[in-house]
Amino acid sequence: MLNEHSTTGKAAVLGAGTMGAQIAAHLANVGWRVLLLDLTHDLAKQGLERVSKLKPAPFYLPELASRIELGSFETDFPRLKEADWVIEAVVEKPDIKRALWTRVQDYVAPHAVLSTNTSGLSIHEMSDACRDDIKRRFLGTHFFNPPRYLKLLELIPRRETDPDILEGVARFAERVLGKRVVIARDTPGFIANRLGVHSMMVVFPLMQEFGMTIEEVDALTGPLIGNPRSATFRLADIVGLDVMASVAGNLHERLATEAEKRVFTLPEVVQRLIADGRLGEKTGAGFYRRQKDGTIEALDLNTYEYRPRQKAKFPHLEPFEKLPLEERLRTLVNHDSREGRFLWRLHAETLRYAAQCAPDLADDPIAIDHAIKWGFNRELGPFQTWDALGIRETAERMEREGIAVPQVVQDLLRFGRTRFYDTADTGDTTVYVWLGAGQVAPYRPDPEFLTPTNMARHCPEVERNADASVYDLGDGVFCVGIHSKMNVLGPGVMEMLYKGAERAEREGVGLVVTGIGEHFSVGFNLQLFLMMIGTGDFDELLMGGKAFQDSLLRLRHAKVPVVAATFGYTLGGGCELAMHCDRVVASAETYIGLPEVGVGIIPAGGGTSTMLYRALNSLPPNADPYPAIRRVMETLGFGKVATSALEGVQYGFLRQGVDTISVNPDRILWLAKQEVQHLAAQGYTPPEEPKVMAYGNQVLTRLLVELHNLKRGNFITEHDFTVASQIAYVLAGGDLSQPVEMPLSYFYQLEIQVVGYLAQQPKTWERMRHMLETGKPLRN
């Protein structure tokens, strides 16, 4: 039976289309062997080849595709008995799925879990013809596309599904596959698509009524109201208009009421775009179109032609953008403006529908809120939004405007409750359960899934400045959470690193360091660096660089263990910060690297020196050091960034057997805390400063010859050569005439010396300015 211990196994995936092949890829990512079948072996091969070319990539590493074996329905059904999990992912047609399961049931092993992957078809309808022993092991899975990256997995059991099997699959999905699981009922569209697609469909008539452009709607329905930047129409393009039409069509067909059928009727603009083959990102055009020069155009709803995208501006709403989300929402929906009225109507309709459907979808708000937050990357679910806006105030306004107040809300108010989630003075939270007479149930989030954002909301904050805070995680473990813009590192963050280490040494057993938001850290504050160059105060610049090194060394030599919990962009100084911790717990989706060459400098927060030390320290006795140093030179000189934590291990930014990789990003804080406690319990002592061999001209000359050859072949520019030669200088330990063993701090001093030289180069200044203005590196 599948559970959290099923870290290896064999799966059979039936159907090598977009979803089937990507599900197979993600199973291979986490260590499983996969048999991928389609009608023919060639179709299975084509499916795997097609998804292997996708961007973003479905595999953590390309070579993991070797864990997938190909076959066909014609010849390989007998091999299904080898599988611990059989996942059907053929075309979304109930009759085809039903016929396939009628065949497959005769080949599967008695212990195998059996599931159909579907975005909203009836689980019972496609498996009613199966034997009773099959029904007991059968359930639906709704992976969101792409399966590697999107968090939500809806599990949909049959009436007969064994509860132990369902619970085991949920634990496996969360702890091995890295998903967040919601148990959904077998209703059309389940939870996420039913409510998520509804929230997109109601935008179309409102956009027409309020005379809004596509850009205006996306500006109003994105981060401003707690949604991702993809908002509404950008999201439709990413998903694919044909996919959106398919899900909406299924809901239109299967829902009973005429009112719902009207909502899920495909708008004319979507029908016209699909008829023209404009399906969104995959065809190059949808609601938006990207030109070859990178400029983005938007659809003009009056002409159905594209025009330059226009930035939507709402100056009267700007004062509210920095308010806490709940307060911001209340302010926006009550704002006396076209935009405020649009947002009120949008929220009124989506909240009404969520509450109206709720008893058919789940027993309480928790599963529904989780499905919307995890499935669509929103900060609040619908019932959390009801609470934020005020249930009584929202219901009364609905009544005044002739909008039917859902029975669930009427009952809640009638039973004297004013919130779906209510936290007492003791800190205990209860949630309203709509089954029964105003019942409530305790709401206790699983402590294993403490995200940095939730840490900032719920854990005691014991120190704070504008850029970072120190939080108490309990059990003597403190956490520095970085919350500057893009989590850049500057004096404010350095101050909190010192204070976090001091507090942990004084009052606790260890420290965790993480970022709050989408990323761990994009690195040192480049704007600050550029300002110091602009003033010509290079002494201050060198002092700032030394101060940054010192703050990282404060962590490395703290009297208690320090563990970094990384995710998202972990770049430049962010990578160096992680490398100075005793351990790293990295989300599998950690994009980690030292790309400083792109802005004309070298990694100077100890990154160059640490990479050198790691490379030489791993060598066997008497081995030639040059190949290892050359690999570091190549990694840093080309500014390589790993696109997964596994690739980060290959590059040396993370350490095999020392650092931990978590497929589930929501567990990294909990795992980091466990690592701190484990190290403390073992009797932690800080590391002593190591010695590193400086090979001098023996290595420097060879590196410079290779760089000259690259420049001569036009593989690198003149300034690339300048920067790379300085990396070579540090890796060689300077231009020493003879090799000599030096303390690691010697190489740190060389880093500062080199940055001081490069900062005075005009082309470095040009690279930095270009990066700040465009977000892209300049090859000058």
Structural notes for this entry:
This protein has about 775 residues and is of the alpha/beta class. It folds into three domains: about 10-185, NAD(P)-binding Rossmann-like Domain (Rossmann fold, 3-Layer(aba) Sandwich), CATH 3.40.50; about 195-440, Orthogonal Bundle (N-(1-d-carboxylethyl)-l-norvaline Dehydrogenase, domain 2), CATH 1.10.1040.50; about 450-595 and about 640-685, 2-enoyl-CoA Hydratase, Chain A, domain 1 (Alpha-Beta Complex). It contains 33 helices and 24 strands. It has an eight-stranded mixed sheet, sandwiched between helices. Strands 15, 16, 17, 18, 19, 20, 21 and 22 form an eight-stranded mixed sheet that branches. It is globular.
Helix proportion range: 40-55%
Strand order of the largest sheet: 3-2-1-4-5-6-7-8
Give the averaged pLDDT, no decimals: 95
Strand content: 15-25%
Major sheet description:
8 strands, mixed
Radius of gyration: 28 Å
Second-tier CATH architecture of the largest domain: Orthogonal Bundle
Number of domains: 3
The overall strand count is 24
Unreliable runs: none
Category by helix and strand content: alpha/beta
What is the CA–CA distance across the termini? Answer: 58 Å
**Number of contiguous helices:** 33
User: If you consult CATH, what is the topology of the largest domain?
Assistant: N-(1-d-carboxylethyl)-l-norvaline Dehydrogenase, domain 2
Taken from the alpha-carbon principal axes, the silhouette is globular
Q: At the first level of CATH, what is the class of the largest domain? A: Mainly Alpha
